[in-house]
Amino acid sequence: MSTTEAVEAGNEKARQVRITVNGQFVVLERHEVTGLEIKEAAIAQGVPIQLDFELSEVRPDGKQKPIGNDKKVDVKEGDEFWAIPGDDNS
What we know:
The strands form two sheets. Strands 2-1-7-4-5 form a five-stranded mixed sheet. 26% of the residues lie in helices and 33% in strands.
């Protein structure tokens, strides 16, 4: 591996961030993602959720903040999210 390849590999790893969704680790390729991208990554990595689930971020005080599909989120290492089925009152 050349020095350039090693630097590029190190930079790629530095961009990745590990979060949890429903208690399972999910690795994202960048820090700024949408709620939909979090769910897509979680599904691709084996978290048993669906795209129509409601996503929320678990705040440091334990409260949950809803995250819409189009909402941009700046995630950091260790952030925690929950995805649960939405209410279906039809």
